[in-house]
Design brief:
The chain has 110 residues and is of the alpha+beta class. 29% of the residues lie in helices and 15% in strands. The strands form two sheets. It has a three-stranded antiparallel beta sheet, with no helix packed on it. The longest helix is centred in the N-terminal third of the chain and has 14 residues. The chain is globular, with a radius of gyration of 14 Å.
């Protein structure tokens, strides 16, 4: 197992070594954590179905870094959420269906 905390620590060390978080996020790597997901997939209540390949291809071929990736999962039918690049997190906008990703945004902690 890779601990999510250890993965975040690695990513933050990468940012320190490579010129800062803004530089890493813009040009090198983005870290997307999936709440509740086990190693590679699954979990009692997790949204573990998402298309990261298209996001990567769009970044490499079209210079469009992913700001969010839509996630769904068999363990939570009818629910979707955006996966946000670390250190941003998912936050409900305050209106609309709480089950739909469109009503959430990726926010940085203040």
């Amino acid at each position: 197992w890779f601990s999510a905390i250890e993965t975040v620590n690695y990513y933050e060390r990468l940012a320190t070594d490579m010129g800062g978080m803004n530089e890493v996020r813009a040009n090198l790597a983005r870290l997307f954590l999936v709440p509740g997901m086990g190693h590679c997939q699954g979990g009692e209540a997790t949204l573990d179905s998402f298309d990261m390949i298209t996001a990567i291809v769009d970044w490499v071929e079209n210079d469009k870094a992913p700001e969010r990736v839509l996630a769904t999962g068999a363990s939570m039918p009818g629910i979707s959420r955006p996966l946000c690049p670390w250190p941003a997190h998912t936050q409900y906008k305050g209106s609309g269906d709480i089950n739909l990703a469109e009503n959430y945004e990726c926010k940085l902690s203040e």
